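Escalated from tier 1: iron/sulfur cluster holo job.
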Amino acid sequence: MSGVPQSNPQKTFYLETFGCQMNVHDSEKVVGTLIQEGYLQVQTVEAADLVLYNTCSIRDKAEQKVFNRLSDYKKYKKQGKTFGVLGCVAQQEGEKIFERAPYVSLVCGSASYNKLPSMLAQLEAASVATREIPFDKLRAGSRPAGENAGLRDDASVIATAGKSGSRKPEAESLVRITGLDDRETDACFETEFTARTNPHRGYITIIEGCDKFCAYCVVPYTRGKERSRTSQSVLAEARQMADLGYTEIQLLGQNVNSYKDSEGNPAARKTFAELLAAVGEVPGIRRVRFTTSHPRDFGRDIVEAIDAVPTLCDHVHLPVQSGSTRVLDAMQRLYTRDQYLERIAWMKAAKREISITTDVIVGFPGETESDFAETLGLLEEVGFDAVFAFKYSPRPNTPSLKLDDAIPDEEKARRLEVLMAKQREIQTTSYKRYIGTSCEVMVEGRNEARVQWMGRTTHNKTLNFTAPATANPKPGTYAPILVTSSFPNSLLGELVL
Ligand code: SAM
Ligand code: SF4
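Tier 2 regenerated the structure:
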């Protein structure tokens, strides 16, 4: 943890994070903010006064995980702990969470995190007042479930006391605070108090929200409209990180390459590719990554920037979702198979070899065997270095909920298995190309059981390696490794002395 002074810690909090890198980084900022407010972070629910879950609702499974956690906490509530739900499930479900999980006191969407200190203060003040107000005077019951969920940007407090009219012991009266975001919000969670968990590589969010509205996706509803930071503030953060000793920076956004500089002076605005290059030129920064890119906004200038600036990593994650133009159209992805392949051709023509990875959804409503075969064909044609594949999961509020021709779950599972087996074959063969080459890794740690070190290449591949006992490579340093064998998902090598 760095850059966060610990001011007289008293109250303790535990935070568990679900989901994508954006959530991981949001949590780093929430942790920094709470520490600044005088809280102390602890590693178990048992040790915490305040228990927070930063949630993900991208697929049903992710959402269920959170409710499973919450169903477990009745026993903890009796010990006087306060529970809060943050992030996408909070924004999606709003006050309905209080019905499903009645002991939750705080529900807060991601664009309201800058209000967290005042919300927590309100919560504390209200719980003191609740203890002092005669029980009968409390407003009973919560608001109607889901009413206006996702449409408000105010923080509101409701003191409730179980069922209307019932008399319950004081300890069971509940105070509830909601901070839900307006989709049109301009708020970005920028803070100087970020508790980054890794001292060598760190995230910077450059754009929040999404305006693409793919037919299957909750993000435009849970994270609001697209809004970008100024290139100046991004560069200032990158320089600050370099000063603190970070050498790798990953720029983040749901669609990172849809970045539009919000700099006031039009002459000073940077395109995404220019911003990438500028971050790559910050003294001390050795590696720059970015994720996730949307194919529609993926210009040739990004490839040119990678060619021109050696610190930009040789890796692009470009989710395709399907190899069938018909399905891409139904998904409202805004590009065709051919347009996707055109972007792949730009990358394959680059001066350096760029490793390409992707996301695929199988079993989107109406996906035929022949559509699925087109996706398998595309995997072969591109030769991705990794594929993150998911069964289509119907999500609340999304247009694809209304589509006919749902694919049965067993069939989705079958397609997923076929696709993963095909991709494993592809990687088993293609990773062999590294054998005999020397790759630079950032050392990440040591696997004591295997007597190996772990490293990551510029291509974002895990490269485990052996080294003489005297070498003792340190995490965060860079080392040349000779690759000696390959596996479908990783490489093995030895330190070059
Ligand atoms: N913005 C990125 C893009 O456009 O490709 C993707 C961000 S999304 C948070 C990460 C991945 O989750 C997507 O690429 C998609 O494959 C998957 N995903 C999103 N919604 C899904 C759903 N309803 N069912 C299954 N997978 C889903
Ligand atoms: Fe979701 Fe599509 Fe936006 Fe990506 S571009 S976050 S998949 S709506």
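Confidence is low (pLDDT under 50) at residues 132-155, 159-173.
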